[in-house]
Amino acid sequence: MDPKAAADALMTEHPQEWVGAFVSELLNDLRAEDLSDAMRQLDLSDAQAADLFGVTRQAVAKWRKEGIPAERQPAVWDFVDAVRVLSRYLRPERMVAAVRRKNAQGESLLDVGRTQSLAQMRAQIEATLDLRRVAP
Length: 136
Known about the structure:
Oligomer: single chain
Structural class: mainly alpha
Strand content: under 5%
Radius of gyration: 18 Å
């Protein structure tokens, strides 16, 4: 079935609030899959991701199964976006080393995410890989 036709059918067959809840659940499932994909690309276990997000291993496992709570979503999206930037510029086999390599201050990108914020980690990745800084 065409997605547009399916959406039209849902809108005519169900109340708008039900459709809104359905879409919200569908997006939450997709976002949980994005988190799982990002963790897989960086070879992070639930325990390592939990340390990064400042939660328990069980919380991360629950997020991946049932969706990410609204209050945790901004940090998760910063993390997912950071991994997407890395995957645009690095080969998959290089990504793990890139986030674990220590800089001159003895801090890895994962350390930045853990000790500062995941937004700061994303910003550092974007700044490092900003090809506009390279002279033509």
